[in-house]
Amino acid sequence: MNLQKHSLAAILSVILATLISRQLTIPNNETSLNYLKNIGFKTFSTTSPILSLFIPNKIYKNHHRHNHQCHRTKKKTGISICNNFTPKFPTIDTTTTSILCVDGNGCCNFTTVQSAVDAVEVLSPKRTIIWINTGVYFEKVTVPKTKANVTFQGQGFESTAIVYNDNANISHGTFYSGSVQVFAPNFIAKNLSFMNVAPIPGPGIVGAQAVAIRIAGDEAAFWGCGFFGAQDTLHDDRGRHYFKDCYIQGSIDFVFGNGRSIYENCKLISMANPVPVGSKNVNGAITAHGRASNDENSGFAFDNCFVGGTGRVWLGRAWRPFSRVIFAYTTMTSIIAPEGWNDLNDPTRDQTIFYGEYKCTGEGANTTLRTSYAQNLNDTQASSFINMSFIDADQWLQPFA
């Protein structure tokens, strides 16, 4: 899905316009295109196969066309674009559910996602759907513990995005750098993207971790969502979570945390720098699970997923000594290093970490040279992770509809 240079500039101009509207300064010696590349869009090369998914073309087309018509209509006829605004709200039972509408052009009661979250009733037993119209929302969003049962409903992860650019240095810690931070239980997100566009860190850079979303509430589900960043993209912090048909991009530890989560039919795309043919250098890792003791019932389970992109990466690094990750029925390209996993240079962890693979395919799934502590799981072992009982789904997970 390659894009031409003029398309690249056009897409970036959407984020640029948003940055300018938020009064962020651009260094005088940089062009807008170079500035946006430098703040984090290293993936924006005209040959990148994942370019059109990082800031997809639909965001630009819909956003630009919408605003262009808005200005033209207002100038020539004086008629507001909102006269033609017809949101496709889902059908709801108003006794159990309410809807709040967000539109950056002012056609709803809210122009920002955070203002809609703030309007959610505290400790409400009802579900609140925050319907977010097509566009890029440059803001930092927090869903506090008191705002349970909230749904973020986008219009497609290629057309609706919440974007910010904090990193660990700016926010005083990786855990606080998320563009979106969710602490409330029973959170749902559908059909939108979460992005962190902070500068992509070079090797060994301190404090450059930049989270797209931190999910620290229990019983959360993500359907058809995108997660875009570099180091530490998706902070699957704690609680039981379900991800279905999602697109997750990063370079180092881009799914990390101590959650108990199932990832089903998701795409995990590395944007680590390409390595020369034959090189044994490893420059990325997909997961960094943070299970600290054998008493913790947590782990990441990837079922029927796809792993691809660029670089040479590990499936996981042992962030903490009881790290637990499994991949089942997953297609792995040649970006996976033959050893597969990394104990963070601490051999004492080899006896306590649990890294397993089950019936995976592709060039990267060859386990001949895997580390000694990696396991080829049997049917019983694998089923305990990829069965929905791993996250107690029957107690809380609702169908997509």
Automatic annotation (TrEMBL):
Major subcellular location class: secreted
Domain of life, per lineage: Eukaryota
InterPro entries, per the entry: Pectin_lyas_fold, Pectin_lyase_fold/virulence, Pectinesterase_Asp_AS, Pectinesterase_cat
Keyword Ribonucleoprotein: no
Recorded catalytic activity of this chain's protein: [(1->4)-alpha-D-galacturonosyl methyl ester](n) + n H2O = [(1->4)-alpha-D-galacturonosyl](n) + n methanol + n H(+)
UniProtKB keywords: Aspartyl esterase, Cell wall, Cell wall biogenesis/degradation, Glycoprotein, Hydrolase, Secreted, Signal
Pathway annotation from the record: Glycan metabolism; pectin degradation; 2-dehydro-3-deoxy-D-gluconate from pectin: step 1/5
Pfam family, one: Pectinesterase
Major enzyme class: hydrolase
Entry annotation: catalytic residues: D253
EC number per UniProt: 3.1.1.11
Domain Pectinesterase catalytic: 102-393
SUPFAM superfamilies: Pectin lyase-like (SSF51126)
Compartments in which it is found: Secreted, Cell wall
Annotated signal peptide: 1-25
Gene Ontology BP annotations: cell wall modification; pectin catabolic process
GO molecular function, a single term: pectinesterase activity
Function: Acts in the modification of cell walls via demethylesterification of cell wall pectin.
Family membership: Belongs to the pectinesterase family.
Name of the protein described by the UniProt record: Pectinesterase
